[in-house]
Amino acid sequence: MTWLDELLRLRDLICRKKEIVSKIRLGKITLEQDRVKQKLGSLHARHEALRARFLDSQTHVHLVMNSDRLSLAEALRIRGRLTDMDIAIDKVVVNKVRPGSDINAIERSFAAEHLSTLPLADGDLVGMAALKAYLDAHGEVFAHFRPSG
Predict the structure, then answer these.
(1) Cβ neighbours of residue 125 closer than 8 Å, sequence gap 6 or more
(2) Does 95 share its domain with 39?
(3) H helices present in 3-103, as ranges
């Protein structure tokens, strides 16, 4: 049961206990008057559609992080939440890796996932010329960015 399911269940309970008039019947038409319940229902529908999209076999999640300790802690929290939702991480991308960087802790933490590293750019990656120069210099790195499966 998701948190939205639980909210909807609680809202139904509140409405019944307080005997709130939540529906008005006009002939054969029933109008919903509980706006909170309507909003929760709408959120629930959007949540379920998004969840279905993430669980679809055509969806590939790439977790992108920097190589510092704070980014590692955040990435581990994200992985934990995705795992709780049964969403698999296809690849972990470590961005802005400086030459000689120690990424052993990242490699140990994400040993089960495919890990790719992107070197720190020498300058700003603004414009097509700068992007092309970066890709030309690091083309071997980008060969790994195809969805697996």
Answers:
(1) 131, 134
(2) no
(3) 3-18, 35-55, 69-84
